[in-house]
Amino acid sequence: MTTExxxxxxxxxxxxxxxxxxxxxxRLRARKSALxxxxxxxLLVLLALAAPLLAAIEGQDPNAYxxxxxxxxxxxxxxxDFGGISAEHWLGVEPGTGRDLFVxxxxxARVSLLVAVGATAVQILIGVGIGLAAALGNRLVESxxxxxxxxxxxxxxxxxxxxxxxxxxxxxxxxxxxxxxIGLLQWGGMARLVRAQTLSLMKLDFVSAARLTGGSTRRVxxxxxxxxxxxxxxxxxxxxxxxxxxxxxxMSFLGVGVKPPTPSWGHMLSTATTWFRADPMYVLLxxxxxxxxxxxxxxxxxxxxxxxxxxxxxxxxxxxxxxxARTSGAGGAA
Amino acid sequence: xxxxxxxxxxxxxxxxxxxxxxxxGLSVAFSAGPGEGSGGIVRAVxxxxxxxxxxxxxxxxxxxxxGKSTAAYALLGLHRDTGADVTGSVTVAGHDVQAxxxxxxxxxxxxxxxxxxxxxxxxxxxxxxxxxxxxxxxRVHHRDASRREARARAAEVLDRVGIPxxxxxxxxxxxxxxxxxxxxxxxxxxxxxxxxxxxxxxxTTALDVTVQDQILGLLRELRAETGMGLILxxxxxxxxxxxxxxxxxxxxxxxxxxxxxxxxLHAPREDYTRDLLAAxxxxxxxxxxRTDGLPQAGGDDSVLLEASALRxxxxxxxxxxxxxxxxxxxxxxxxxxxxxxxxxxGKTTLGRMLVRLLEPTxxxxxxxxxxxxxxxxxxxxxxxxxxxxxxxxxVSSLNPRxxxxxxxxxxLRAAGKxxxxxxxxxxxxxxxxxxxxxxxYHRYxxxxxxxQRQRVGIARALAPEPKLIxxxxxxxxxxxxxxxxxxxxxxxxQRDLGLALVFIAHDLAVVRQVSDRLVVxxxxxxxxxxxxxxxxxxxxxxxxxxLLAAxxxLEAAEAPA
Amino acid sequence: xxxxxxxxxxxxxAVLLVLSVVVYATFYIAPGDPARLACGPRCNxxxxxxxxxxxxxxxxxxxxYWHFLQGIVAGHDYSTGTALLHCDAPCFGLxxxxxxxxxxxxxxxxxxxxxxxxxxxxxxxxxxxxxxxxSALRRGGITERVLTWLTLAGTATPVFISGLGLLMxxxxxxxxxxxxxxxxxxxxxxxxxxxxxxxxxxxxxxESAKYARLMRSSMLETLAEDHIRTxxxxxxxxxxxxxxxxxxxxxxxxxxLSAADFGSMFGGAxxxxxxxxxxxxxxxxxxxxxxxxxxxxxxVVMVTGTAVVIANIVADVLYxxxxxxxxxx
Lengths: 334, 561, 329
Prior knowledge:
The complex is a heterotrimer of chains A (334), B (561) and C (329). Chain A has 334 residues and is an all-alpha fold. Chain A is 62% helix and 1% strand. In chain A, helix 4 packs antiparallel against helix 5 (139-154) and helix 10 runs antiparallel to helix 12 (280-308). The longest helix of chain A is centred in the C-terminal third of the chain and has 37 residues, at 217-253. The radius of gyration of chain A is 24 Å and the shape is elongated. Chain A starts with 20 loop residues before the first helix and ends in a 26-residue tail after the last helix. Chain B has 561 residues and is α/β, with parallel strands linked by helices. Chain B has helices spanning 68-75, 102-111, 130-141, 147-160, 166-169, 179-191, 209-226, 237-241, 261-266, 271-279, 347-354, 377-384, 404-415, 420-433, 450-462, 480-497, 508-514, 532-537, 542-550, 555-558; strands spanning 21-31, 41-52, 57-62, 85-92, 95-96, 113-116, 197-201, 229-234, 246-251, 254-260, 303-314, 321-332, 336-340, 362-367, 370-371, 387-390, 468-472, 500-505, 517-522, 525-531. In chain B, the strands form four sheets. Chain B has a six-stranded mixed sheet with strand order 6-7-8-3-9-10, with helices on both faces. Chain B starts with 20 loop residues before the first strand and ends with a helix. Chain C has 13 helices and two strands. With 329 residues, chain C is an all-alpha fold. Chain C is 74% helix and 2% strand. Chain C is globular, with a radius of gyration of 24 Å. In chain C, a hairpin with a 4-residue loop joins strand 1 (76-79) and strand 2. The chains are: A mainly alpha (334), B alpha/beta (561), C mainly alpha (329). Chains in contact: A-B, A-C, B-C. Chains A and C meet through helix 5, helix 6, helix 10, helix 11 and helix 12 of A and helix 1, helix 6, helix 7, helix 8 and helix 10 of C.
């Protein structure tokens, strides 16, 4: 009933995890893995931003062919060791074309991050909007949106995204298109989360109290709900980012993503499948970039989640655990 | 020691010469979460020592954070492998709990000392039949017992704790039992291996008062019958008073006072115990009469709120549940109407309907003659400021991300009548009025204790200058001393401001301290209504009589034997 | 239960109807000219007009949509000028590429997709629940740290990287396995299994990481529940606490998720199929997309949607069966 508070083993005040931004930040900083991941990502963003500058320093153009650097007799394998690494070409050149690999990789980072961040932004916008509407709307709106959301969560995104590429005009800028397509298709999880969070917040008395102030529903939503939704939304966004990166790479890998000659890790990997015997460097470099980026985002996302939900850390104590609702994952890119 | 029940009980088979429980210098410390800073160590129990003779009964009482449950857990070594730092020595029936290896500890748990937990629903495995769960525990301690024997034992103990048709009900799952039956089943599990000691951690806190009375009666019976020792951990002095021989009062992890029940309750030596006893609400004591002129004399006793044949259903079709059914109620300006009832009586639903947080599905609800029962949210806004609510849970009733000043200012800002400076000034005034530091405007809810948060909630309800406040279990989440303070504050405010209060609670004693009139609810309906003193002293309805009889009283032990 | 299933089936039908409208609008109405696509790049205006008449593209949009639905439910007749071609229900039309019935193309591709889905799911479940359990039970130890990092790495590796890695390692350098080529199960079961080994491993590894994380958190949550504490306080050994009291509740969300995933694998394992050259539905989709073969694209989307919707109902039923506290409503 009502008296649980009287009987907890731990002292009442003080041990309740403080939830202000400074505390969250402090907990996040205490996780070494999260810090390392953030550092890696910072470096990556820097590389992506500075891509033209780096290209200028190296003195290479991402789309310039160098026929002289590849051995046409052996089908286009780069001359020299390790994929043709040299002072002019820091990470060697692409087999077949002889384009500079380093510059293409950093430009690829641009595409990757741009698409992922853009898609995440779209997902947040749609997800929060639909989730709030489903939680606050009337019966009809609620059941309609909940059904649509259920379908969106379950649908294999990749299938839809690929299909979509069949009907969009070819001259539409591809990175933007990818961001929009991924965003439009993969907001289901976010909407479901926002809806569930809003519904449980609505049960809390402070929202009832806010209703009693005589403010409009919109006012209550803005002042009481949105601030409390920020934490779970950020956490989930951190989970979505790596998924979106993989999604862009997957589509480019399948040839329905970023169009050549725009550099993309996924596309590089797909050409690399025919080269992995002759030029392993060409497989390893983009694979490594993609892996490290996704891993860093995943680790950081885990860190953010733990920092926002300190209960995780204190689970070992003898205490009352509460069962969460079933967590259904999104249909991933397989 | 007053009673020494020996022999006859199975526990007497292994006769111990020393005390059943000997605790000396027990300290339990938890480290606060990593990265939390702030010292990081919480000493929940600090140098605690006590003894319990075989067959004796000790009540450990204290407010939240006193370390009473933590101490009880230490008796079964339940802090092992949890990261808690336990020092000192704990001996139960000759077994050194601290020194025991894992296997030894497992033999002790359930076999020598058994524990009954607070929440009977979550404390049982939801997937398995109750009887199977008891049989499993039995076979842990009787390895040579067959499945059939274990099952027979389960039925036997279930029968003993008063589960009707025990052999058949043993096959039911916990959710098919009522709350009281689940707690009986947990006690049956404790009995299964004939322990010498029963440790009960708030065994009746989650139960209604009538069920609580039955469970306490059962514990007394079992003790007399088996001769086992009992350690009863509770926040409720009344519960302890009638069930134990000795009392140990704890505060901040330390023992404040320890002695026979009668001495502790009748002639407390420590100030803290005296304060605690003074704060306990008594169901048989009349409300303090108003000294400074009756509020009714203020002239205005017009009808504020009138509900007639009010009804609320949840769900639709076959699943529909009627939470409130045919309730008619009048609240006049300046009076306090107490609403009492057990869980499921519909009292909270009624309260939420009165302030129109919930829309009634039937009947009429009028405020000063205007029908507000079916009003749309937009029309209601004009009335919102006059009908306010104080909520039960001091944690969830304040937005953790907004300063308390902003929470209180909210209704003033929504009204849009005052400018910013005037609003801040008004909030400071309100904070002071409810006994808080006016400078705490910019502080956040987690910086306050439960009682202080409840004061903030009251200030927020007062801000729009309401005519009526519905208080839904406003003190049930608070410790008894804080409870008394908050109740006193509500009384003062009502007297000074001429407010009407609807005071909803499950605790009959608390309600008596504030109410002019009393409404008793059961199953969504009103079973009895009348002037408070009349209902308390000469209840007309059998249900009310039963309810009042079940309230634990300190006097049971206070009265000289 | 029957009532629940009926309600869910009705809901599923509604969802699929909505999906069909969206899909139809996206693929047949929004873009350029289906007739030109169907006819091919070398068609003259006369031929295009002929195709347009054949596909009834002159009809009002709602009528076209109605025919599309009719085809799925009851079949459809096409006149190819000279002969009358009957397309059995469920009919998704004729391929723009070779005038083959799309439904037949899908059925032809189904065995490869199903082979992949079943095997990969088995790998993922076994490996995932195993590692998840182990890391939940070995909390705080080195085992847990290693497993945590392994599963993190697993979730961060796209299937085309792990697939490429497996191919390079086992087929190119170690040469333990031949480069996979799909052999139907009905043809030669042994060869089928050998050739599916790498696809199973690649997709299974990726999915298992997801289940391992879910299993671990679910197990830890269950172990923190009050009823576990009760049995611990009665001397029940830790191993028994897990097997008798925690496992069932903890495994429920994993089972439910895997059931839902299984549905999406029927259209979603595109990357794995492309990576290993499996002639499955995903590969068909990619090919259809690059050749702008709209009827095939639409059919794959609809079939995948149906599989997913059904799988979700199955998932919910399984979840409720495993966790009795959840009521089906």
